[in-house]
Design brief:
This protein is mainly α and 135 residues long. The chain has one domain: Orthogonal Bundle (Arc Repressor Mutant, subunit A). Helix content is 69%, strand content 7%. It has 6 helices and 2 strands, in the order ααααββαα. The protein has a two-stranded antiparallel sheet with strand order 1-2. Helix 2 packs across helix 5 and helix 5 crosses helix 6. It starts with a helix and ends with a helix.
């Protein structure tokens, strides 16, 4: 199995996620919450469906996470400016501050990965993985 590309990719992904989760765990923030904050910091005001796709979480799980994040005042629900019947998720000021602080861990991990590979090979790997993605 160790020769199968899918296995190697999954194994490396789990390793990298575990490393990042350990750093985030010091602040009590699950990696899914960081992904949500990152998505909203990039594009504030997303539907639950769009957010679920971007953060790699199924809809039922996302609802539970968003409920928790709302209670922690990291995000809030609000009507769409274009269609008041639609509910969107927005990052709060507290969520944006937390995201800014936690982004250092992501940047540090990125630097470590690039250092392990070197800049050219890291860019090649990124391009290869993007080409595999269906998104």
């Amino acid at each position: 199995m160790r020769d199968h590309l899918a296995y190697i990719i999954a194994s490396v992904s789990r390793q990298l996620e575990a490393e990042l989760a350990e750093k985030l765990g010091r602040d009590g923030i699950p990696i899914e919450q960081l992904r949500i904050l990152s998505a909203l910091a990039s594009q504030n005001g997303l539907s639950m469906g769009d957010l679920a796709v971007q953060v790699l979480v199924d809809a039922a799980t996302l609802t539970k996470i968003i409920d928790r994040m709302v209670s922690e005042a990291l995000v809030y629900r609000g009507p769409s400016p274009k269609d008041r019947r639609r509910v969107l998720i927005f990052i709060s000021a507290k969520g944006r501050t937390l995201h800014t602080r936690l982004s250092k861990a992501v940047r540090d991990q990125q630097r470590l990965i690039v250092a392990r590979l070197d800049t050219k090979r890291a860019e090649e790997l990124k391009n290869l993985l993007v080409s595999l993605s269906k998104n």
